[in-house]
Specification:
Elements (H helix, E strand, L loop, with lengths): L5 E8 L19 E2 L4 E8 L4 E7 L6 H15 L6 E5 L15 H19 L2 E2 L1 E8 L5 E2 L1 E3 L5 E3 L4 H4 L11 E8 L5 E8 L10 E2 L2 H14 L4 E6 L5 E2 L14 H18 L9 E11 L24 H13 L6 E11 L3 E5 L3 E2 L1 H10 L4 E5 L8 E2 L2 H6 L15 H16 L1
Parallel strand pairs: 2-13, 4-5, 12-14, 18-20, 19-21
Antiparallel strand pairs: 1-3, 1-6, 3-4, 7-11, 8-15, 9-10, 11-12, 16-17, 17-18
Helix pairs in contact: 1-2, 4-5, 7-9
Length: 429
């Protein structure tokens, strides 16, 4: 055990108000209930020479400028270098959308809340031992891009009757990695949980931290109210929990609890059989890529069967969203997106590799397969948010995620992210 290794954790409530907007879909309804609390879940870890903050935030996404504001305030308030800060969105779809300029009441509050969570986590640093393990849970991961007999792509959340002749052979990543942080009495004080699945199973106008939030709730019930779970969303741009052959899912108001309970069950099996590698030191490195915005094309607002069969001229809301966005933005000059990639190494075996995309699962699997580390956690929507990054095959096939503004970057963005991430991993190994 590294006698110098210390860590502290803290969760800070960031629940938005009721009667505010719910984002995450093509329309923006008003929240009518709050069924569980939202948190900024902070971990500060220190090997005596390097100190790092890792935070998971119950929000759909964090714009790059907001992330920078938070990281700079953490540096000035907590004396943790801004480049040593990793802030990941859990991507729950019943949250609110943060303002790029931070100039609204909730965004200002969230910035201060995340900084406070890190500050209080740092105050609680104590000597720790770290365990890690992995398993698989295939019960809740489905590639949401289904293929009709004619080869067209349809999304798995639409009318189930229309989907029963589909082929579902797309990539998924069922790996679950759990890191346990325990004190000198060998009692858990926190966890990192990494799983590649869309965190959006709660509907009906209810605010919720969704699957990841309930995983944290279950672990608190088992290990103590002060236990903090940092949930790192894996590469799941084209993966979700929707089993299109299960007609009962849409009528289950506690579906998110059922999914979270199953994942937590697998996590408990992992916790029971963990490795405890020597964490002699921690290291962090990063690169800031500049990736070009792509121009609008004819497919971005083309009406097809992506969202189901068109009946009686009833155009799905998705196409209205894409058409309005194109009309509003098609003449704007193209820019460059800041794509922040961080790699955090915990000893010789454990690494976190982050990116700010909704990265297709294939790319996450590519990073893992090329990583020299025993345990590689890929986490998306971290230190920014730039939208979907699909594969070249997906661009050829069509569907939802390849349309602008859902997808905003050049077609080879995924390959660039994988290449640079793998280079960073090999440099740190």
């Amino acid at each position: 055990m590294n006698e110098k290794l210390q860590a502290g954790l803290y969760k800070f409530n960031i629940t938005p108000s009721v009667n505010g907007p719910i984002v995450g879909g093509f329309t923006v309804p008003t929240a009518q209930d709050i069924i569980d609390e939202f948190y900024a879940n902070a971990l500060v870890i220190d090997d005596g020479s390097t100190e790092v903050a890792v935070v998971s935030v119950d929000i759909i996404g964090i714009p790059y400028k907001v992330y920078k504001d938070i990281a700079d305030k953490i540096e000035s308030t907590c004396d943790i270098p801004a480049e040593n800060v990793i802030i990941s969105a859990t991507h729950n779809h019943t949250s609110v959308r943060l303002k790029e300029d931070g100039n609204d009441v909730y965004t200002e509050y969230l910035i201060e809340a995340v900084v406070s969570a890190v500050y209080l986590a740092k105050k609680r640093k104590q000597p720790v031992r770290i365990g890690v393990g992995r398993s698989e849970n295939r019960n809740y991961v489905f590639n949401r891009r289904l293929k009709k007999p004619d080869g067209s792509i349809v999304m798995n959340w639409i009318d189930r009757d229309y989907l029963q002749d589909c082929i579902d052979d797309g990539a998924v990543d069922p790996e679950l990695i759990v890191v346990k942080i325990e004190n000198e009495d060998k009692q858990p004080i926190g966890f990192i949980v990494n799983y590649a699945n869309h965190n959006n199973s709660v509907g009906n106008l209810r605010r919720s931290a969704d699957i990841s939030g309930y995983i944290g709730e279950l672990l608190r019930r088992i290990y103590g109210e002060d236990v903090v779970t940092v949930f790192l969303l894996g590469a799941c741009g084209n993966t979700n929990w929707v089993n299109y052959r299960d007609y009962t899912q849409k009528n289950d108001p506690k579906l998110y609890q059922r999914i979270a309970t199953g994942i937590t069950g697998t996590a408990l099996e992992i916790i029971a059989e963990m490795d405890y590698p020597e964490i002699d030191r921690i290291e962090i490195n990063s690169r800031l890529l500049k990736i070009a915005e792509r121009a609008y094309n004819d497919y971005d607002d083309k009406i097809d069967n992506t969202f189901g069969e068109i009946k009686d001229g009833d155009i799905p809301a998705g196409f209205k969203f894409f058409k309005e966005a194109k009309e509003k933005n098609k003449d704007k000059p193209l820019g460059l997106y800041d794509v922040d990639i961080h790699v955090l190494k915990l000893g010789k075996d454990i690494v976190i590799a982050s990116n700010p995309c909704e990265l297709f699962t294939e790319f996450g699997l590519d990073i893992k397969s090329q990583s020299p580390f025993k345990y590689t956690m890929v986490t998306e929507l971290t230190n920014g948010t730039i939208g979907y990054v699909p594969t070249l095959k997906a661009y050829e096939e069509g569907g939802y995620e390849v349309r602008k503004p859902a997808n905003r970057v050049e077609k080879n963005a995924g390959e660039k992210i994988v290449k640079n991430t793998v280079e960073l991993l090999k440099e740190l190994y």
